[in-house]
# Entry
Amino acid sequence: MIFFPFNSIAYAMKIFLDTADLKDIRRAAEAGLIDGVTTNPTLLARASGGEDAKEIFRQIAEMVDGPVSAEVVGLDADTMLAEGRRLAALHPNIVIKVPLTEDGLKACRQLRSEDIGVNVTLCFSPTQALLAAKAGATFISPFVGRLDDISSDGMQLISQIRQIYDNYGMDTEILVASVRHPQHVVEAALMGADCATIPPKVLWQLMKHPLTDLGIEAFLEDWKSMGQEL
Ligand code: G3P
# Structure
């Protein structure tokens, strides 16, 4: 991908695509819209069509210039470690997703000591996020949509984690997950989240505005009346 630095951005919120669908990933990557990809077993089951999961991870990692989260399925630390090491060996872009459990945090600490990136997932509370940062997580994934689903306030969790991490200079990146609509993305950026992982449908929505479409239509109509070519 060619990147032209027209203007300088010190540090912008990263946008990851939350999918294992290769077509959507290719489209977003070719448009230069994404900084990485996150997957989970549900997304893989939806997209795989029987193809080997490791092969899908490898293909995604080839397509994207940034971290690609691949999730372990073992529940004990030793199994998570074995799976994590195997997945990390597939491609340098692979980051290992572990669940926020006691064993997950143990595996996180060990994988980080081996210089393997870790995304601690299924985070629903500020104390979980604090422990993940202390275990050296590269990313913490708070699931905002699933909290909203149970009448809790998902974005309030992001603001709490932001404050806790800032209080102690913790460099674990807040990766807003379970994003359901563009407003989640707006609030994530306003709160200074480091990244948001976004389903393809929401990513396309981020660019759309009815006034943009109406504006183009009117400009083209007026241009046509001039009967010229550029
Ligand atoms: O990648 C994990 C997360 O984004 C899942 O989202 O919509 O299944 O809650 P959702």
